[in-house]
């Protein structure tokens, strides 16, 4: 037998866990284990047995041995606390300083209690148990049972009776007869069978309980789904009946034709045409009742979207589905339908929330329609339209019904009966949902009207806009913030002068402290109230710019102020002193005070009541008070996780609150405390980012420097407009949006500053570090205009408009017909030519749409994508192929993103044009690969090998010349750049003869495979981008490759000087003079202007072939990006016809060019030098691109037409073309070169 050790380990094992005689193998398990259990666990094998915690030492977790107490009142083992004091000098429990052992004393009373506990057998060490086991091995003494239990090795029976049985068998087995043994075996066998049966029953009973509950749950769900389907079917029948009634009440086309058949008047004919168009629109919208739901869905997509077919295949599945741009008839309906599909899941929730009353209660409602916010019904054109409450509908009870215990119908029959009985009464909630759909899809975009600046003074550290507010007539608006100034602007003047860089206010008032909020009086037009950081509430006369009254009773910063719209002399303010104070314009002090439980962040009066006020506090609550009883709130709304930064009223009954937990919440004052809906999608974690409301729409700021717009019936945002970064204030239009209405907001700072009393400089420091956010939002009353300001002082006036779908907007439809996915992309405006942008808009929009669709499907793991021609197959192929590119040559195989296979729709026309677009786009992707490859993997030698392998397969003649050949040709200018590098230079000569014309077209490309700047070393920032300084060479190579694969009827020669520009002891030094192939001497004043040096000799060599014209292309100067940005290449030309041709080519391809001056003035700056012919730097400042072009002109014969294309601006990271991406090398303007050479070279 084995007994417990001093550590309290039990002799029994897990195998002896049952109650009864004991467990076989417990002794052997205990003796053979040999592993010392952790002292912390003290030998407890399972969580069933627990130790007495009254006498445990907090350090060793064992019974305290020689108890000592510290000065802070905690008791430990003497050895444990002594060691702790030596190491840490503090109490292990409370960190109270304990400098020496003098700070601990013996705890005699506890020592006596522990001794008594051990004598009773409760000790963990088990020392007493050993003695009992040795002295009484065969007795079932109380100490033995107690000790067995305390040891934790199973239950007392297993530890006590099991050991006793073993002792009995060991000592008395010789006295047992055969019959005794048989009896014992029979008893043990029966006991074993019972134990096994009990264990099996327990396990299967649990499984049975689980399956029983699961079945019940699924049956309830089945009944619920059946109930919902019945409701949907009935609603569908009602709506189809309305549509039929509308159609039947309208005259037919034949009737219209008959009534005005003999009329010849042009006005009558025009009216007739318009009436017929309206009739056709109604007929198109009307849904035939005899079509199935699935067929209707599929056909709707195929009928509604024409011109763009993206077919997705997922995980090896094949197939295609139709998608595309919005059809023109009827355009408004199809645009709204597309927006509805984008938020379909949200509308499903909204629908069942609105219809929950009829779905669950049927005819016997427990609450009225009014309590659910269901509006009155009105009829128009035979249709029932809801005009009240809006999307909230039945949302009040939806959380309790949909998410909680639901009254399940007893059968499908009774469910259908209930629905039949409530069809007429349920129309009101269906009308409510219909109104939600209408209002949601009413608007489609946010359009910027004007941009202002809160401050044009650069001396201000921070220019956060804290508040924007319109006056009572929406004629003027006030802007206030941390600059301590309140500026009054005329709205109409701001719109009229939108193109003016600086807009001046018509009036301005200055405060003594930073302003947190402003509010206009709704009756007295000239009265404005403000609150500031000193806790002062000021009343202003805007006309005279004077303070008429000042209230100074707040002890801390005052964050908000609001006028009552009914009692217009009453106003309220909230402060960090946890008080809401009520003021009157007729009294010099506060008229009442509400003591809040936390800092007050915002206040707002009910717009239709003189005695109801809502305010938000830092304890995450929204308080709603009746001012006739200030002792306690009328309603207390809880649900936010952080401080409530804003409260606004949507209408008399509905409140919207904003919080720094990143949510807006909708509440109903008639049914607290339930939240009707939470709105998410914006970012708001620390700053108070503004909130404004309209009857049905909400707008708020976001900490990603964007404005978000919500519809009250949907939880996710409808539109988002991003403010541009930087302090210029010219924000990007971007975004799409929706909403109209009234209301305003103010916002500044962050939640911590409002709740913890941080200084304002903390907020300013946050802003200065680049954390821009939209800080104030305001609606213009009775209009669809919204004004928003951000933390940089940029104010945008925006209009929420209806409009066409923006090019590139995508929507994916799943499992339509036989295909898994369809991406539908908008084609935008159908106009073909944009005079301002000088581009074929229709073709460019096709590229954008195709690229957006491919990216959308690729992001959803599609392996095969089929694209329709969209009436411009070549452009569709270009956009799709350029978008389906990702440079990942140096990524591990397992980390590479698989790219889908892109193909052309089999049933579409224009296969030849598609193939042409694919060839051109793949050639441009080849240029992107050459430019993107790191310089150590794309040396001149590797470049030559790569190009030779690719172009030789396309029947292009490739000649490679070395440095010895260049010296024979006296290319001293070219060779001077190679001096500093160990990589040998190469000179590529390419020939494609697609025509037998004797004269060729010469293309010359700069091929610096890495440009460090040489001795004139470049800054280290972005030097890695110089791996693409051979972008000109890549363009020449890819252009010739595309021309050869297209079998273009042109004769083209390409000349590509290749080398590195590196510093070393052999490198050319500033001031060195070198000679070009034509004999001209060049002083190299800047070794970083090396591109023109290698191009000079290449141009001289190209001229020896007497070409039709020469075009050189290079990433030559950073000055061209300064002049033109990243959207266009700069062209210098000595021939007007060539310029016209390349300009037209750029307009057609979407890769535009812009002509730069090539005046004699620039040539004089390059050539007017003593001692040498030219300098590689021009005299004077500026015009770096022009002087570089003038330098190159000196190496082209005067009678040879010539163009120079500077592509440094469009080399990489371009925001102009979405289909080439915003990051990485672009390979531009290769498509323009192909178009230009094809036409100009064959002319």
TrEMBL record:
Segments for region (Disordered): 1-36, 368-428, 732-767
Protein keywords: Aminopeptidase, Hydrolase, Metal-binding, Protease, Repeat, WD repeat, Zinc, Zinc-finger
GO CC terms in record: cytoplasm
A Pfam cross-reference name: Peptidase_M17
Comp. bias (Low complexity): 747-757
Reactions listed under catalytic activity: S-benzyl-L-cysteinylglycine + H2O = S-benzyl-L-cysteine + glycine; Release of an N-terminal amino acid, Xaa-|-Yaa-, in which Xaa is preferably Leu, but may be other amino acids including Pro although not Arg or Lys, and Yaa may be Pro. Amino acid amides and methyl esters are also readily hydrolyzed, but rates on arylamides are exceedingly low; Release of N-terminal proline from a peptide; L-cysteinylglycine + H2O = L-cysteine + glycine
EC number: 3.4.11.1, 3.4.11.5, 3.4.13.23
Composition bias type Polar residues, residue spans: 408-428
Compositionally biased tracts (Gly residues): 1-25, 385-395, 732-746
GO molecular function annotations of the record: manganese ion binding; metalloaminopeptidase activity; ubiquitin protein ligase activity; zinc ion binding
Gene Ontology biological-process annotations: proteasome-mediated ubiquitin-dependent protein catabolic process
PANTHER family: E3 UBIQUITIN-PROTEIN LIGASE COP1
Family: Belongs to the peptidase M17 family.
HAMAP family: Cytosol_peptidase_M17
Protein's name according to its UniProt entry: Cytosol aminopeptidase
């Amino acid at each position: 037998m084995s007994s417990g050790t001093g550590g309290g380990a039990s002799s029994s094992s897990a195998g002896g866990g049952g109650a009864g005689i004991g467990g076989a193998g417990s002794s052997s398990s205990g003796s053979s284990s040999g592993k010392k259990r952790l002292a912390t666990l003290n030998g407890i094998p399972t969580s069933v047995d627990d130790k007495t915690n009254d006498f445990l030492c907090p350090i060793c977790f064992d019974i305290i041995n020689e108890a000592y107490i510290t000065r802070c009142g905690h008791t430990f083992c003497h050895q444990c606390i002594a060691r702790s004091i030596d190491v840490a000098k503090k109490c292990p429990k409370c960190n109270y300083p304990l400098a020496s052992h003098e700070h601990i004393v013996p705890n005699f009373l506890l020592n006596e209690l522990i001794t008594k506990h051990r004598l009773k057998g409760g000790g963990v060490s088990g020392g007493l148990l050993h003695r009992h086991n040795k002295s009484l091995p065969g007795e079932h003494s109380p100490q033995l049972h107690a000790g067995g239990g305390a040891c934790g090795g199973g239950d007392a029976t297993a530890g006590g009776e099991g050991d006793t049985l073993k002792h009995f068998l060991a000592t008395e087995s010789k006295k047992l007869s055969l019959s005794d043994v048989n009896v014992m075996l029979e008893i043990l066998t029966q006991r074993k069978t019972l134990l096994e049966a009990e264990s099996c029953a327990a396990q299967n009973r649990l499984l049975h309980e689980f399956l029983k509950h699961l079945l019940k749950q699924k049956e309830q769900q089945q009944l619920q789904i059946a109930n919902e389907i019945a409701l949907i079917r009935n609603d569908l029948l009602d709506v189809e009946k309305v549509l039929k009634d509308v159609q039947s009440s309208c005259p037919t086309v034949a009737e219209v034709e008959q009534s005005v058949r003999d009329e010849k008047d042009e006005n009558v004919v025009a009216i007739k045409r318009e009436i017929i168009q309206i009739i056709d629109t109604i007929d198109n919208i009307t849904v035939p009742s005899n079509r199935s739901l699935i067929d209707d869905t599929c056909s709707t997509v195929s009928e509604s979207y024409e011109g763009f077919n993206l077919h997705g295949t997922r995980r090896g599945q094949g197939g295609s589905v139709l998608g595309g741009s919005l059809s023109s008839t009827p355009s408004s309906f199809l645009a709204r339908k597309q927006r509805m599909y984008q938020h379909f899941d949200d509308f499903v929730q909204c629908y069942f929330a609105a219809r929950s009353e009829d779905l669950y209660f049927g005819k016997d409602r427990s609450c009225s329609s009014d309590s659910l916010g269901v509006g009155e019904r009105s009829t128009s054109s035979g249709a029932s339209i809801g005009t009240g409450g809006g999307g909230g509908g039945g949302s009040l009870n939806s959380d309790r019904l949909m998410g909680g215990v639901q009254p399940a119908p007893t059968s499908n029959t009774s469910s259908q009966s209930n629905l039949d009985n409530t069809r007429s009464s349920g129309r009101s909630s269906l009308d409510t949902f219909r109104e939600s759909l209408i209002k949601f899809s009413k608007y489609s975009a946010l359009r910027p009207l004007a941009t202002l600046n809160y401050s044009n003074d650069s001396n201000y550290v921070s220019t956060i806009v804290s508040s924007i507010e319109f006056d009572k007539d929406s004629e003027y608006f006030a802007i206030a913030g941390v600059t301590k100034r309140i500026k009054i602007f005329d709205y109409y003047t701001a719109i009229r002068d939108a193109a003016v860089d600086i807009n001046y206010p018509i009036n301005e008032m200055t405060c003594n402290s930073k302003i947190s909020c402003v509010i206009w009086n709704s009756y007295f037009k000239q009265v404005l109230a403000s609150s500031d950081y000193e806790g002062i509430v000021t009343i202003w006369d805007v006309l005279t710019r004077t303070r008429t009254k000042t209230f100074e009773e707040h002890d801390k910063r005052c964050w908000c102020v609001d006028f009552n719209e009914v009692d217009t002399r009453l106003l309220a303010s909230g402060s960090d002193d946890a008080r809401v104070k009520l003021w009157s314009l007729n009294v010099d002090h506060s008229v009442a005070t509400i003591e809040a439980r936390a800092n007050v962040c915002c206040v707002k009066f009910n717009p239709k009541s003189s005695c109801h006020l809502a305010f938000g506090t830092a304890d995450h609550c929204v308080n709603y008070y009746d001012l006739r009883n200030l002792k306690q709130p009328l309603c207390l709304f809880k649900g936010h996780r952080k401080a409530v930064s804003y409260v606004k009223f949507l209408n008399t009954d509905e409140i919207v609150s904003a919080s720094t937990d990143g949510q807006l919440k909708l509440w109903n004052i008639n049914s607290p405390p339930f939240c009707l809906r939470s709105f998410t999608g914006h970012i708001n974690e620390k700053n108070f980012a503004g909130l404004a409301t309209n009857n049905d729409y909400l707008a708020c700021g976001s900490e990603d420097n964007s404005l978000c717009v919500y519809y009250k019936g949907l939880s996710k945002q409808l539109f988002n407009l991003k403010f541009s970064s930087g302090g210029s204030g010219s924000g990007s239009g971007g975004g799409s949006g929706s909403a109209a209405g009234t209301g305003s907001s103010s916002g500044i700072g962050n939640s911590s500053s409002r709740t913890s009393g941080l200084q304002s400089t903390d907020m300013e420091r946050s802003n200065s570090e680049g954390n821009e956010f939209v800080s104030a939002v305001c609606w213009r009353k009775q209009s669809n205009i919204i004004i928003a300001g951000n933390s940089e002082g940029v104010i945008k006036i925006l209009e929420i408009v209806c409009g066409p779908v923006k090019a590139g907007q995508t929507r994916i439809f799943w499992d339509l017909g036989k295909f898994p996915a369809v991406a539908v992309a908008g084609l935008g405006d159908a106009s073909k030519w944009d005079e301002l942008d000088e581009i074929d808009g229709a073709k460019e929009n096709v590229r954008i749409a195709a690229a957006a669709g491919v990216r959308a499907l690729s992001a959803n793991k599609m392996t095969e994508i089929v694209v329709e021609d969209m009436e411009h197959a070549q452009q569709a192929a270009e956009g799709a192929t350029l978008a389906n590119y990702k440079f990942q040559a140096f990524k591990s195989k397992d980390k590479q993103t698989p790219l889908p296979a892109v193909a052309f729709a089999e049933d579409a026309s224009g296969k030849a044009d598609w193939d042409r677009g694919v060839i051109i786009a793949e050639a441009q992707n080849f240029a992107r690969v050459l430019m993107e490859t790191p310089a150590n993997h794309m040396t001149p030698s590797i470049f030559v090998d790569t190009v030779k392998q690719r172009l030789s397969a396309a029947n292009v003649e490739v000649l490679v010349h070395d440095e010895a050949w260049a010296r024979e040709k006296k290319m001293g200018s070219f060779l001077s750049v190679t001096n500093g590098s160990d990589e040998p230079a190469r000179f590529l000569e390419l020939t494609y003869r697609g025509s037998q014309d004797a004269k060729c077209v010469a293309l010359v490309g700069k091929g610096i495979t890495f440009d460090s700047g040489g001795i004139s070393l470049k800054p280290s920032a972005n030097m890695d981008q110089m791996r693409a300084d051979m972008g000109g060479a890549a363009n020449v190579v890819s252009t010739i490759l595309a021309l050869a694969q297209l079998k273009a009827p042109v004769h083209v020669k390409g000349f590509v000087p290749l080398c590195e520009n590196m510093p070393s002891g052999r490198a050319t030094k500033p001031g060195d003079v070198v000679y070009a192939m034509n004999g001209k001497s060049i002083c190299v004043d800047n070794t970083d202007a090396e591109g023109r040096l290698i191009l000079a000799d290449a141009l001289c060599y190209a001229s020896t072939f007497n070409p039709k014209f020469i075009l050189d292309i290079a990433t030559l100067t950073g000055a061209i990006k300064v002049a033109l940005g990243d959207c266009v290449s700069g062209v210098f030309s000595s021939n007007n016809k060539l310029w016209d041709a390349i300009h037209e080519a750029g307009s057609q391809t979407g890769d535009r060019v812009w002509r730069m001056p090539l005046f004699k003035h620039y040539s004089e700056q390059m050539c007017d030098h003593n001692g040498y012919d030219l300098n590689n730097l021009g005299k004077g400042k500026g015009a770096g691109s022009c002087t570089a072009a003038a330098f190159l002109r000196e190496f082209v014969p005067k009678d040879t037409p010539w163009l120079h294309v500077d592509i440094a601006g469009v080399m990489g990271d371009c925001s102009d073309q979405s289909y080439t991406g915003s990051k990485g090398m672009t390979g531009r303007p290769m498509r323009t070169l192909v178009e230009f050479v094809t036409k100009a070279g064959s002319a």
